[in-house]
Design brief:
Length: 331
């Protein structure tokens, strides 16, 4: 590499990729700039970076490159390689392990990193995203083509839920095609510029999962489990179904590990600890992180304030998992 080429790449790397947090050159967003007659030309892949952040990146790149001696002008071209919307499924073997809580917080955390994210609550047995995102009672509208328009939430993400397709409190006893059609309505909705859809799946391996795999193959799946053996045995079943359909497993998350007594501060592990990490290792998948069992996570969630949005209880743990998910997406 010539001296000027090296300087240009280093300057480019001083500007951080808003998604991965790495320098633009290192993260692969931008190849080494071209330089001729005092003019630098740089091409940046801005997939998953929103319009505001794109403008900031462009301004920073201009500044960094113009600071190099001999550079008279900088030309920045932005391209987006994304052609299809990416679906990230969040699944678990059994219910009540915190799959919906994790989905909501991951979606919020990704949106805060500048990604255009939507959230689909496909849990026909217990739709809970309208409550978790403080959007209860808001109904989606429809376009002229009869596509659902997602409900907007305070957290910068659109949301659609199975719960919005039925009357509140009505037991959902859909089977096969009905469940599949409902999922289709949510996924084929008017998601606009949304690039990543987080899908909160029902627990287990039922009709919704089958439709998802057959018709709307996710780019990858995150599996949530509590640490104890029983939940992990079920989680393995969910993993098997996905891997048989060639859906990549992004990794496992352990939820409800390590409870700190609010009185004495002692840490106890009601559901054990480390089980999901050990299972991930044994199965050869990444371990994405551990979310503590905290009363504040439950209360904030019930109030419709996802901890990842407010820096509330467990926010660091949710953000750390979202960081690993972002790395996976960037790869
Ligand atoms: N880390 C945690 N600390 C404290 N409470 C939690 C935690 N994770 C989830 N909860 C609470 O546990 C309950 C179940 O969580 P959630 O609804 O996310 O589970 P789920 O796996 O989606 O369940 P379901 O399959 O029934 O929809 C909720 O009341 C939630 O607030």
């Amino acid at each position: 590499m010539t001296d000027i080429a090296k300087q240009l790449s280093i300057a480019l790397d001083s500007v951080l990729d808003p998604v991965s947090g790495q320098g633009l050159f290192t993260s692969g967003r931008a190849p080494a700039p071209r330089f001729a007659d005092g003019i630098v030309t740089v091409i940046i892949d801005v997939t998953d970076i929103n319009a505001d952040k794109r403008a900031l990146v462009e301004a920073d790149v201009n500044l960094a490159l113009k600071a190099i001696e001999g550079v008279q002008d900088v030309r920045v071209a932005m391209t987006s390689t994304r052609t299809t919307r990416r679906i990230i499924a969040v699944g678990s073997g059994k219910g009540g392990v915190g799959k919906s809580t994790l989905s909501a917080n991951l979606a919020v955390s990704l949106a805060r990193r500048g990604m255009r994210v939507g959230l689909i609550d496909a849990d026909i047995y217990g739709p809970s995203q309208p409550r978790l995102l403080g959007a209860e009672g808001r109904k989606p509208t429809a376009t002229d083509e009869k596509k659902l328009v997602p409900v907007q939430t305070e957290y910068g993400i659109g949301m659609l839920s199975m719960g919005q397709l039925v009357k509140p409190g009505q037991a959902i006893a859909w089977r096969g095609p009905m469940a599949g059609n409902a999922l289709g309505q949510l996924i084929d909705a008017d998601w606009g510029e949304t690039e990543t859809l987080i899908v909160d799946l029902p627990p287990g391996t039922g009709d919704v999962q089958l439709t998802m795999i057959q018709k709307y193959k996710p780019a990858g799946a995150v599996i949530v489990s509590t640490p104890q053996d029983l939940a992990l045995i079920d989680a393995r079943r969910a993993i098997n179904l996905l891997t048989e359909a060639d859906v990549p497993i992004i990794g496992l998350v352990e939820n409800m590990a390590g409870y700190q007594c609010p009185e004495c501060g002692a840490i106890s592990d009601p559901f054990g600890t480390g089980g999901a990490e050990a299972a991930a290792q044994e199965l050869g998948y990444d371990f994405l992180g551990r979310i503590p069992l905290e009363l504040g996570i439950r209360t904030a969630s019930d109030e419709g304030i996802p901890p990842a949005a407010s820096g509330g209880p467990g926010a660091d743990a949710f953000n750390a998992v979202a960081g690993k998910l972002t790395d996976w997406i960037a790869r």
